[in-house]
Amino acid sequence: MEQKEAVPQDILSNPLFAYFLFLAIGILFGRAHDVSVLILATGCWVCFLAFTKKDFAQCLVCVLFLLAGFSLIWILDNKVTPSTDIYHFVSKKRVGVTFKVAATESERLYNTRYLVEMKSVNGKSATGYARWYAPQNIPAMFLPGDVLHLTNVKIKKPSSYRNIGGFDYDQYLKNRGITAIITTIKKTVVTHVETTFSWRRAFEKVKNSIKRTLSFDDKMVTAIARAMLIGDQGFISPEARTTFSRAGSAHLLAVSGLHVGFISATVYFAVKAFMFLVFYNTMYEWNSAGHPSRIAALIAIICVFTFAV
Known about the structure:
By secondary structure, the chain is α+β, with helices and mostly antiparallel strands. It is built from ten helices and seven strands. The termini are far apart.
């Protein structure tokens, strides 16, 4: 009995592809504004006719996936925050806050931006995450795990002026779980309360050590070196950004595969060479089996992960 050869199925004709496509379109619908809705609706209708082929059952399933994607993003964007969330403490009055530093987001010319986990506001228990802009008059460089108490600060609601199709800063912060902005004045007093455990602390120390290594007398050279080697754009001046943009080289200042490849390649070949020189005479068979390459690749992956966080 002759066996028929299996004919490979085109991925575009697979119903699962259409279902997940409509799920993605539904998610985009949930984030669409104004003109984008019309564009997405047109694209949705074209895909609807292309993939369903007028099969009523498949049409119904596609519509259900579309509604599921829309409902998913709608529920995510409109979930109820607990009464203790920092969002409910937004006020024009100056208050005292206690929080734990979760991460150092960026160090800039005029301030340092931190992601903080709230503990209390005026002695009342508070939860959630906020973004704190520490000005230059606060010279200490805090690390994840540091618990701080600040006086005379203002808690603001994130807001942005959004043009049609423009960047939605408020939504960007909401996606990251940040519901408030903490600003300070000259009279703000910062007190270090205690230091708690944070897995990010060791990584931040490594990053700060690299930053100190990339420090030169010329501030512009320091800023460009940090941006090109480790992706830290905090000290890039607006003039420098404009110059790179006009020259068509702005991508060199952004965190990209160039930085990941540079770090991973450097670590991989350095570790592999070190292990080859140390263990070549004593463990020849172990080296010949390719174990140094595997270990070097694993260490490179860990270093890339450290760079990412």
